[in-house]
């Protein structure tokens, strides 16, 4: 009974501050947990890698499409786009062969357009800034007489990151009848 | 804490005052018992207080509640008023701070959670192709194998294709595969051909949990074996395979294959030949 009296008399003013304290501590715990979670989400290496992968693929698809698009009536713009989409050796090749190539296309009077069917990154070295992509293309060539031909291209591209941008540094057709890999 | 003790002590003192006479009556029995046992200890004060304490419950049972009820309200307000008001404002301020802190922390928690969710919802993260190295290579390997089996046909073992289809296909891929292969199969049977498909390159476009999409470059070789005079190798899907001779014809194909993870294996659930 004495105990009961003590509890009754002593505990009465307590519950509110105690409850408030508990709630504050719980809120603090939540804040710490979610804050840490947020920090982890924001500094996730995988996320940064995934972002690079998507950037490389987007740039790769666009560059491959650019290099398979050319209108004989607007050669300069098309070839400028070729050069701006590429880097390294491929860029040098295109730049050095530009005039000759322009003559050929002018003579053939062709309009080439390309549509990306699908693309994917096979390898990505985030630090070195290198990536390898597969880009499947449907290339449409319209000859001067209006004849239209469609052809699917299986491209293998290599990308290099220069100045924060991914550019195509090598491009070729996947060989047919070669040795299987993978 | 001090307030409780304070309060209790005050109550006890009050009770003691009122029950002292009772305690005097009650103590001799117990105190006497103890002195008889201990012999020497003649310390009246502790004995009296311990008596009071032991007598307390008894007294409290009779006098306590009544005293508390009657004396409490009468004496309380006068004695406590000043200090209690100060304490009360201090306590209210403390409570307010705690409440504000709770709201602040709770708000931050909610906001941080929303931020984390928003970051995780980014499409780049949802796709674990390449970021999940083990899974990516597992998918590549199994898809390459599946495509090899599903698009190869040997006229001497016509059942192998059916078995592969049963093992490796699911969903709408079953129909797609049947439609793609029906014609090829018929021609291969006529020409006693062996069609072999080998994946030369593949890349995982997207992995989203237990679903994935793989871009596949495959070579198809078609070899017409023995017999028939008009032994021409029919390229399975190759454009220029129809008229080629014996040696075997290679044709390159592009496929996008959807796969799903079932029972620890990746099954083909969709085949996209890009309209070819």
What features would you highlight for this structure?
heterodimer; A: alpha+beta; Nuclear Transport Factor 2, Chain: A; 2 domains; 6 helices; 5 strands; B: 276 residues; alpha+beta; Mce-associated membrane protein (chain B); membrane (chain B)
Could you explain how this protein is built, in words?
- The complex is a heterodimer of chains A (182) and B (276).
- With 182 residues, chain A is of the alpha+beta class.
- Helix content of chain A is 51%, strand content 30%.
- In chain A, a hairpin with a 2-residue loop joins β4 and β5.
- In chain A, α3 (45-67) runs antiparallel to α4.
- Chain A is elongated and about 95 Å long.
- Mean pLDDT of chain A is 88; it is low at 7-11.
- In chain B, strands 1-2-3-4-5 form a five-stranded antiparallel β-sheet.
- The relative contact order of chain B is 0.08.
- Residues 23-78 and 228-246 of chain B have low confidence and may be disordered.
- Classes of the chains: A alpha+beta (182), B alpha+beta (276).
- Chains A and B meet through α1, α2, α3, β2 and β3 of A and α1, α2, α3, α4 and α5 of B.
Quick structural summary:
Chain B: The chain crosses the membrane at residues 93-112. Chain A is of the alpha+beta class and 182 residues long. Chain A has helices at 2-11, 15-42, 45-67, 75-85, 88-96, 98-108, and strands at residues 70-71, 111-125, 130-142, 148-162, 165-173.
How many discrete structural domains of chain B?
A: 2
Count of DSSP strands of chain B = 5
Structural class of chain A: alpha+beta
Helix amount of chain B = 55-70%
Radius of gyration of chain A: 31 Å
CATH superfamily placement of the largest domain in chain B = VirB8 protein
Q: Helix segment count of chain B?
A: 7
> What's the CATH architecture of the largest domain in chain B?
Roll
CATH domain class name of the largest domain in chain B: Alpha Beta
Q: What distance separates the N and C termini of chain B?
A: 84 Å
CATH architecture descriptor name of the largest domain in chain A:
Roll
CATH class of the largest domain in chain A, named: Alpha Beta
Domain SnoaL-like (chain A): 69-170
Protein name (chain A): Mce-associated membrane protein
Subcellular location (chain A): Membrane
Organism (chain A): Streptomyces calvus
